[in-house]
Amino acid sequence: MSVMYLGQLVPLIIMAIALGMDAFSVGLGMGLQLLRLKRIFFIGITVGLFHIIMPFIGIVLGNFISTKLEDIAVLAGGLLLFTLGIHMVLQTFQAERKSPMKPIGIGLFLFAISVSLDSFSVGLSLGMSGVKTFIALLLFGGFSMALTWAGLLLGKRARGLLGVYSEMCGGIILCAFGLRIIFG
């Protein structure tokens, strides 16, 4: 494997984990509900698909923007990641966290959209940086699906002990990647 390929793959894996942390933390809370394994499987697949669709749309828009604005686009992408990370960290300090919605029908759609919105922003910034789209999408979808399953299954047992900390960790990682893009 070439060094250049590894140099792109490792940060993408770390970013995929950071993006999946949101789904993991929300899954912990949702796992407190009585969910069958079949429903947990379907929720994970749905979240994984949304973590492929949303960054794909972001990457396509980011590619378009970057061809038009070049240097400004790279700076904007880094700022977007950093801002998203700060937002995730600040959300962990909210006094009251809402109880999760039912993961059926429109509730499942809203859940999948809410935990994948940050991947749209990340996709937008990655599209501006010219990353390998197919690999990024597979990593984002796979890790978010696996972390959703882990959160739902652990939530059945753990009563939400890790939720706040996992979201904060994901936010810090996104901030770090945003700063890396901005400062090179």
From TrEMBL:
It comes from the Bacteria. GO terms for cellular component: plasma membrane. InterPro entries: Mntp/YtaF, Put_MntP. It is found in: Cell membrane. It is a multi-pass membrane protein. The chain crosses the membrane at residues 6-28, 40-66, 72-93, 105-128, 134-155, 162-183. Keywords: Cell membrane, Ion transport, Manganese, Membrane, Transmembrane, Transmembrane helix, Transport. Its main location: membrane. GO terms for molecular function: manganese ion transmembrane transporter activity. Belongs to the MntP (TC 9.B.29) family. HAMAP family: MntP_pump. Probably functions as a manganese efflux pump. This is Putative manganese efflux pump MntP. It comes from Paraliobacillus quinghaiensis. The gene is mntP.
